[in-house]
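Exam revision sheet. Question 4 asks you to relate a sequence to its structure. Input first:
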Amino acid sequence: LSFFVFVPDWPGAGGLNLMDGPGFQGYRRNFGEDTFVLAKGREHHYITGVQFFAEAGQHAEKRYYTVPHGTRVYVLQNDAGAKRWPFSEEQQEQLLEHLKPPKAEA
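Answer key, structure tokens:
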């Protein structure tokens, strides 16, 4: 199994305590001292889900927004998932690059 779990970086939030806790320790795959990959605030964007609302779904540009807070990305894999889909430092860098908002056109 292999999962990427995105959680807002809001210190003290229950989800962060759970993901950083011992129950997931054997499944976390990342590099460095942290138990997660941090996408910094204003350096990544999301698709909002607005496409599911009929009145806004046709406006693709409204689907994306730049996130003002950090987001923790937890890479959770069992041993078979890590063997089949290894998560490297290069892929970690690529992940953060792909999360960046597009550059504004001049």
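Marking note for examiners. The helical segments are 14-20, 79-84, 89-99.
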